[in-house]
Design goal:
- This protein is mainly β and 347 residues long.
- It is 3% helix and 39% strand.
- The longest helix is centred in the C-terminal third of the chain and has 6 residues.
- The radius of gyration is 19 Å and the shape is globular.
C-alpha cells in the first residue's frame, strides 16, 4: 500500500491548496481523492486481464466541482438525501435548513455542504483521513460538529470508508459518498446493461419531490424488485408511479435483517467486462440512483456524460428520517456519536 500526494489546484473560496492523494495497493488498484469535497475523482480498478479502468465519473479540473449538480464523487454531509419542508424538530426546537430543491432540502446546503468544502488531511501507512468542523447553527443544523471520513484501500481491492462525527447538541447526522460508477469505464456510456442485486425486500415510496411517504413497501411484484440480479434497464421505463415520479430509479431500499453489522447489501456486474462491485455497509438503507438527470456535461479525458452513464449506491439512514417516527433514528449528539462503515469491493 502506498500513498502519494500532489497539488491539484487552489480553492478560490479559501485560498487553500487543494491536494490530490493517490492510494495504491499491490494489485495496481488506485483511488485518487481530493481534499476539496473529499471527492473520489478517479478509481482505477483492474479487470480480469489486469488492465486498469477508471470506473467513477468525475472532472479533469477543480472548477466544475464548485457547482457539481450531480455531486460527482463527493462526500455528502452533514445530512445526505432529503429533509421534507427543509425543517425538523429536535428537543422541542424547530430548525430550518436551506430550501434548495423546491420547498425541501437536498444534501444539506449548496454552498456549505461537505461536497464543496475544504478538508484537512492526515495520512497514515495505508489510510487517508479527511476532516473538518462546523459551528453551532451552520447550515441551520444545531451543534458544534466534527466530521471525518477515513479512506483505506486494501489489497483485497476494497475501498473502505469509515465515517465518524460528533456534536455537542443533538443534531441530524447522515453522511454518505456520492460516487457514480460505470464498471465498463467512466467514458463507456449507459449503465442500463449493468446487472444489479439489492439485498432488500422493501423500499420507501415517495411523494412528488422525492420525500418518503413514511411507508415501508414490499418490492415483490414491482419493478423495484432487485432481490434477484437483473438488468437495470429492464424495467426502468415501466408504467409504474414511483418510476414516473423520479424519472427512473432514485429511491431508498431497506436493507434486509439490519442489525448494525457490516454486511453485503448490493452487487453490480458489468456483463461486457465481467467486472463486479460489491457494496458492504452497517447502515440500514441504500439509495440506488440510476443517474436519471445527470444531463449533458463534460467528463474526464474528453468523455461526454449524459443521463444514466453512471449509477450511485449511497449507503445511508433513510431520507427524511428526522421527520418520520417509524424510520431509523438520525439524531446524534453528546450521548450518541455517529459512526458507520461502507466498503466498495471489486472483483
Amino acid at each position: 500500500m502506498a500513498i502519494t500526494k500532489k497539488v491539484f489546484d487552489t480553492d478560490k473560496n479559501t485560498g487553500k491548496t487543494v491536494y490530490e492523494y493517490t492510494l495504491e495497493n499491490k494489485n495496481g488498484m488506485k483511488a485518487q481523492i481530493l481534499t476539496f469535497g473529499a471527492i473520489i475523482r478517479r478509481l482505477w480498478v483492474p479487470g480480469e486481464d489486469g488492465t486498469l479502468q477508471d470506473v467513477v465519473l468525475g472532472h479533469d479540473t477543480l472548477e466544475p466541482y464548485y457547482k457539481n449538480p450531480g455531486y460527482l464523487g463527493a462526500a455528502i454531509g452533514p445530512n445526505a438525501n432529503r429533509i421534507g419542508n427543509a425543517s425538523f424538530v429536535i428537543d422541542g426546537v424547530t430548525y430550518h435548513v436551506e430550501e434548495n430543491e423546491g420547498k425541501n432540502n437536498l444534501h444539506s446546503n449548496d454552498t456549505e455542504g461537505y461536497h464543496c468544502r475544504m478538508f484537512e488531511a492526515e495520512e497514515s501507512e495505508n489510510s487517508l483521513r479527511l476532516y473538518l468542523t462546523d459551528t453551532d447553527g451552520q447550515m441551520g443544523f444545531p451543534g458544534n460538529r466534527t466530521f471525518e471520513v477515513i479512506y483505506t484501500l486494501t489489497d483485497a481491492n476494497e475501498l473502505r470508508m469509515d465515517y465518524h462525527a460528533t456534536s455537542d447538541k443533538n443534531t441530524v447526522l447522515n453522511p454518505t459518498n456520492h460516487s457514480y460508477f460505470n464498471l465498463a469505464g467512466q467514458d463507456a456510456g449507459s449503465i442500463e446493461d449493468h446487472e444489479l442485486k439489492l439485498y432488500a425486500s422493501n423500499y420507501t415510496p415517495t411523494l412528488p419531490g422525492s420525500i418518503p411517504t413514511g411507508e415501508i413497501a414490499t418490492v415483490k411484484g414491482t419493478p423495484m424488485d432487485f432481490t434477484e440480479s437483473k438488468r437495470i434497464g429492464k424495467e426502468i421505463g415501466e408504467d409504474f408511479e414511483q418510476l414516473k415520479l423520479a424519472g427512473g430509479y432514485d429511491h431508498n431500499w431497506v436493507i434486509d435483517d439490519f442489525d448494525g453489522q457490516l454486511k453485503l447489501v448490493a452487487e453490480v456486474k458489468d456483463p461486457k467486462t465481467s467486472r463486479i462491485m460489491r457494496v458492504f455497509t452497517n447502515l440500514p438503507g441504500i439509495q440506488f440512483y440510476a443517474g436519471n438527470f445527470l444531463g449533458e456535461q463534460q467528463g474526464k479525458d474528453g468523455a461526454a456524460y449524459h443521463d444514466r452513464v453512471g449509477l450511485a449506491l449511497e449507503t445511508q439512514v433513510f431520507p427524511d428520517s428526522i421527520n418520520k417516527e417509524n424510520f431509523p433514528n438520525a439524531v446524534f449528539g453528546p450521548d450518541r456519536m455517529y459512526a458507520s462503515t461502507t466498503v466498495y469491493q471489486f472483483c
